[in-house]
Amino acid sequence: MIFIGYSNRDRYDIVEPMIFHLKNYGINVWYDFHDMFLSDNRFHENFELGIGKSRYVIFIISHNFFDSNCAVEELKYAQMLYEKGEIVLFPVLYLLKASDLPNDYSWIKKIIYNEVNEHSGTLFVTNQIIEKMLHDESKLLPFRSFPEVV
């Protein structure tokens, strides 16, 4: 499963298109708009079941992101899990350059990230995420080279 954290203001511009591509690859996506309900325990649902049960976590970081207390809290929780090696974190900077990240978020620059703008679209970054997931899965296979498969 893959978790997506974002600002609600970015839902239709980038989050929904990324979910479309991920689901076309058959990826199970934890997405609060579909997986959380009114009156749910936000910490349990978002943090423990969403982020904590996902091996892969995407954060769409934009100028809007920093105005969303929930998104910022989720990223702090994800950072802790990332630093423990429990998740793979995919930072996607949306209409934001890495040089524009606030100092508290400079740690993101140490991770391979992608910058998405109004011209680049979401398919390329989604393909990069899928490639990383497939690469990780291939390491678990008993075969180490193509001739061993044949």
Summarize the structure.
The chain is an alpha/beta fold and 150 residues long.
For the CA atoms, what is the radius of gyration? 16 Å
Unreliable stretches (pLDDT < 50, length at least 5) are 35-39
Alpha plus pi helix count:
6
Beta content comes to 5-15%
Q: Average pLDDT, to the nearest integer?
A: 86
How helical, in percent, are the residues? 40-55%
- Overall, the morphology is globular
Number of strands: 5
Distance between the termini: 30 Å
The largest sheet is: 5 strands, parallel
Question: Could you give the order of strands across the largest sheet?
Answer: 2-1-3-4-5
Question: Strand pairing plus helix content: what structural class?
Answer: alpha/beta
The string of secondary-structure elements, in order, is: EHEHHEHEEHH
Provide structural commentary:
This protein is α/β, with parallel strands linked by helices. It has a 5-stranded parallel sheet with strand order 2-1-3-4-5, with helices on both faces. Helix 1 packs across helix 5 (123-139). The protein has 6 helices and 5 strands, in the order βαβααβαββαα. 43% of the residues lie in helices and 15% in strands. The protein starts with a strand and ends with a helix. It is globular and about 50 Å long.
Keywords:
150 residues, alpha/beta, five-stranded parallel β-sheet, 6 helices, globular
Chart the SSEs and their pairings:
Elements: E1 2-5, H1 11-24, E2 29-30, H2 32-35, H3 42-51, E3 56-61, H4 69-83, E4 88-94, E5 114-116, H5 123-139, H6 146-149
Parallel strand pairs: 1-2, 1-3, 3-4, 4-5
Helix pairs in contact: 1-5
